[in-house]
Design goal:
The complex is a heterodimer of chains A (555) and B (328). With 555 residues, chain A is α+β, with helices and mostly antiparallel strands. In chain A, strands 1, 2, 8, 9, 10, 13, 19 and 20 form an 8-stranded mixed sheet that branches. A 7-stranded mixed sheet of chain A has the order 6-5-15-16-17-14-18. With 328 residues, chain B is of the alpha/beta class. Chain B is 28% helix and 26% strand. Chain B contains 9 helices and 16 strands. In chain B, the strands form 3 sheets. Chain B has a 9-stranded mixed sheet, with helices on both faces. A 5-stranded parallel sheet of chain B has the order 13-12-14-15-16. In chain B, helix 3 packs across helix 4 and helix 5 packs parallel to helix 9. Chain B starts with a strand and ends with a helix. Classes of the chains: A alpha+beta (555), B alpha/beta (328). Chains A and B meet through strand 8 and helix 13 of A and helix 6 of B.
């Protein structure tokens, strides 16, 4: 079927309305207003900036702890403290080591984890607020529209096709079928966040890989309303140790927010050996530790979510500029894995992209030659200053927690160089230990169930993520070879997708004497873990019909 | 400016969006000091033409032909092309109906013209006609105008103009003139069959007093007949949890839960349903809930009024048989 698509032209098309994308849009709109006021030519307009967001509303897919280093936001919105929904300043800051039943506070908080001057925020609320500012400048924001495909032209990118709406399970158009738009832009900005589907394809296709492949963690989070007095607003705890073994990289967090709200979660690097490890279950166990339990007991679960985060840092950055396109934020590996912070660098990278784009529009040249300026700006900014110092940080922990601590300490005193520089890394899925034919069909009823009060099974948690998808649409999770799932993967790894997915999307069901993969795509919380952690790399996470996915209100 | 509105009828009944489009035409004519004609296409539709003639139009074209009795894209395109070439309108307007979506772009293309579809308004900007259409599901609107020579083609969205603003003919009636069209059966590649109405899905679970719902415990598609037999014996409707409908074992409209229907029958019999919260939110308002499940720890028992810890494959036939016995 050939589809007639509506064509629209913009100066700048931003894919993804997170801190990076909105930072770029807002800064560019401001720069354009100044540019026009100065009487300089050509006259530009913020109305020619388009932002696509696949979520139902602004902020719907934003998930983070979050502790905000306000540096980026202060540059973007100098008086942000007056209007931004900052929840509470950090007042009490500590790092804890957990054993099964005890918690030890480290005598000093390691400087990278010191958070005075930072704010505990809901990234969902911050992004909603930023979206309002962006819209006020006349930028066109389109929620419920996803970037489905890049339009490649020459050596670069000429725009994006949005997803077709109203397609049924079998790929046939329904009564409400609306073909996606063909959005052409002088500059396309990929700000899809962690492991963006367009970014992934572009990096592969145009061979933009950095020195190291990207490595990821998965964060699982719940928002609670605790009984009054259980936790102070501004209380920040980061934990190491239980329930994770010292061979795993990760930890937990508990933050006290206003109105007795508690943000808590755990993050685990997706580079562990046991293919049956279940990040959701590990987080549920974390809540049963006395240190956490005493805060939550008697409280109620408000919301749930999960999302991956890119740990790779400087050496995993893809080349971030091509003809007609830039990559910013998490998609461009801007996160600081040592400080566990990426909102400020995301915003900053968006602003630097905006400055670059203004120059390119003024010059009438949006080829890589002009857009290269973005990379130069990154190199001169505090993004590089910060990330360069921790360029080997995450890699150092590949040999386990204790070795990692030694490496990290040496890196800390040598400006990031440490013993080996650059330290190389491999994609995390290569770390699974093979099961040598032990794979057996797991009876789902033996999986972690939770007590329904403090701990929950995955489906109950998914319910609390507010996830909704149009049911009658093709699965947006594409598995290229289902035979591998029911044959090789059963034998070799015992189908880790059943375990790593924090939303119970993947399930092996009996078929005849064997088993087959069943995909419950409607449960998907858009965390991207499957695309990252599948050992055969045959799962492609693609965008579902716009508006589908979680609803991370207050997260 | 000469405007021509192609009104839509089927089996002698108007599609009422036609009148809204006629209002749009009258307003454009008023803004551009133009004239409006209307055309009705079909076989034996003179009465409809007479009805159109009572509206404020300059002329009604009666486009009749045996081969236009039923709608075919070829028949309409070939016929209307001749009408437009003879009448030489500047602007041809259609109601944006399914039928118009089917043939109007092809008709415009046959004449080498463009078409602006699904408009919601217009503006006259110093003699230049600008059409307004929605994009991104109504999040933004685009102004579109024609380049090149007339005739131009546009269609208006249902509800964009108010049919009750249609003005009547000032002196009583406009002339009705037959427009000659030549059609050969060979021109028409589609063969219309009997009209039929899609059987409406009869099930309205929200009205059912008794619902028998199945979950994963049903295990296989072929086992559903057992639950259906029980539902029949109880005088209830069959329903299911998401996984069952997801497999395609039952249609989506029988899905109960957060992504399906919310129901509150007098009696809800849950067979082999574990009681995931996604399902429970769709049925917890039921007056009496009876749950059958092998697993005594299944959360469904927390909300059930009566629980049977048993294999549904023992319970279903036994209950069915017993109910049939009492009914005699």
């Amino acid at each position: 079927m050939t589809i007639q698509r509506e064509q629209l032209e913009a100066d700048v098309l931003i894919v993804g309305a997170g801190p990076a994308g909105l930072g770029c849009a807002l800064h560019l709109a401001n720069l354009i207003t100044k540019h026009n006021a100065s009487g300089a030519k050509p006259e530009l307009s913020p109305e020619n900036i388009y932002v696509l967001e696949k979520g139902r509303e602004m902020g719907a897919h934003q998930l983070s702890g979050a502790i905000l280093d306000p540096r980026g936001l202060r540059e973007l919105v100098p008086d942000f403290e007056k209007t931004a929904p900052l929840d509470t300043p950090v007042t009490n800051d500590g790092v804890y080591f957990l054993s099964k039943s005890r918690a030890w506070k480290l005598p000093i908080t390691p400087p990278p984890l010191a958070n005075h001057g930072n704010y505990i925020v809901s990234l969902n609320k911050i992004v909603k607020w930023l979206g309002g500012l962006v819209e006020k400048e006349g930028v066109n924001l389109f929620t419920k529209f996803a970037g489905k495909k890049l339009i490649y032209e020459g050596h670069g990118v000429a725009g994006v096709l949005t997803e077709d709406k109203g397609v049924d399970k079998n790929g046939k158009p329904k009564e409400n079928f609306t073909p996606g738009y063909e959005l052409r832009a002088k500059v396309t900005v990929l700000s899809e966040g962690t492991h963006g589907s367009l970014t992934k394809e572009m990096v592969n296709r145009l061979k933009l890989d950095g020195l190291n492949p990207q490595v990821f963690g998965i964060g699982v989070k719940e928002l609670w309303e605790a009984r009054p007095g259980r936790i102070e607003p501004g209380f920040v705890a980061h934990t190491m140790g239980w329930p994770l073994g010292s061979d795993m990289y990760g930890g937990g967090w508990v933050y006290g927010m206003r109105d007795n709200r508690v943000s808590l979660g755990s993050v685990v690097a997706l580079e562990y050996a046991n293919p049956e490890f279940d990040p959701h279950e590990a987080f549920q166990k974390f809540k049963t530790h006395p240190f956490v339990r005493r805060i939550l007991e008697g409280g109620t679960l408000v919301r749930y979510g999960a999302k991956t985060l890119p740990y790779g840092g400087w050496y995993s950055m893809p080349r971030s500029y091509v003809d007609g396109a830039l990559i910013i934020g998490d998609s461009a590996s801007m996160l600081n894995a040592q400080r566990l912070k990426g909102i400020h660098t995301a915003i900053k990278s968006g602003m630097l992209a905006a400055e670059t784009i203004l120059e390119a529009l003024k010059a009438g040249d949006t080829s890589a030659k002009t857009l290269k300026l973005y990379k130069e700006k990154i190199d001169q900014s505090y993004i590089k200053e910060e990330l360069w110092k921790v360029r080997n940080f995450h890699q150092a922990f590949h040999g386990g927690l204790w070795k990692g601590m030694v490496h990290a300490a040496l890196q800390y005193i040598s400006g990031g160089r440490g013993l080996v520089d650059p330290m190389r890394s491999e994609a995390g899925y290569k770390d699974y230990a093979k099961r040598n034919g032990n794979g057996a069909l797991v009876d789902q009823s033996t999986r972690f169930k939770g007590d329904g009060k403090l701990t929950f099974d995955r489906l109950t948690d998914v319910f609390h993520s507010g996830t909704r998808h149009e049911e009658d649409q093709p699965s947006h999770l594409k598995v290229r070879d289902l035979d591998i799932c029911s044959s090789r993967c059963v034998e070799e790894y015992g189908n880790p997708c059943q375990y790593f997915c924090p939303a119970a999307v993947y399930e092996m069901v009996k078929e005849g004497d064997g088993s087959k993969l069943k995909i419950n795509a409607a449960n998907c919380v858009h965390c991207k873990t499957c695309d990252i952690a599948d050992p055969y790399q045959i799962i492609d996470w693609t965008v579902p019909e716009g508006g589908g996915g979680p609803s991370y209100d207050g997260m | 400016m000469k405007l021509l509105v192609i009104a839509e009828q089927r089996q002698g009944k108007w599609n009422n969006t036609s009148f809204e489009t006629l209002v749009a035409a009258q307003q454009i004519a008023a803004a551009t000091s133009g004239t409006v004609s209307a055309a009705v296409v079909g076989k034996s539709v003179a009465a409809l033409a007479e009805e159109l003639a009572t509206k404020d139009v300059a002329e009604v074209l009666l486009v009749e032909h045996d081969l236009l009795e039923s709608y075919t894209p070829d028949g309409y395109c070939t016929g209307l092309k001749q009408v437009i070439e003879a009448a030489t309108p500047d602007l041809v307007l259609f109601p944006h109906t399914y039928q118009v979506r089917d043939f109007a772009p092809a008709l415009a293309a046959m004449l080498g013209k463009g078409m602006v579809g699904d408009c919601v308004g217009f503006r006259n900007e110093g003699g230049k006609l600008v059409f307004v259409r929605q994009m991104f599901q109504g999040k933004t609107v685009a102004d579109v105008t024609f380049m090149g020579a007339a005739p131009w083609f546009a269609s208006f969205q249902s509800g964009a103009f108010r049919a009750d603003l249609l003005t009547a003919h000032r002196s009583g009636k406009a002339p009705v003139n037959a427009a000659k069209v030549e059609l050969k059966a060979a021109d028409i590649r589609t063969k219309p069959l009997e009209m039929f109405k899609e059987a409406k899905s009869a099930v309205d679970l929200t009205q059912a007093p008794v619902i028998v719902a199945i979950g994963r415990g049903i295990k296989a598609r072929e086992n559903i007949v057992q639950a259906e037999a029980l539902a029949k014996a109880m005088g209830g409707e069959i329903a299911a949890t998401r996984p069952i409908c997801d497999e395609g074992w039952l249609p989506l409209e029988r899905q109960i839960g957060s992504s399906g229907q919310t129901v509150a029958p007098k009696l809800y019999l849950a067979l082999g349903i574990s009681g995931a919260i996604q399902h429970v939110v769709g049925m917890k308002g039921s007056r009496t809930i009876v749950a059958v499940n092998k697993d005594q720890h299944a959360p469904i028992f927390e909300i059930a009024d009566y629980g049977i810890v048993a294999d549904i494959f023992e319970v279903m036939p036994a209950l069915t048989a017993e109910l049939q016995k009492t009914k005699g």
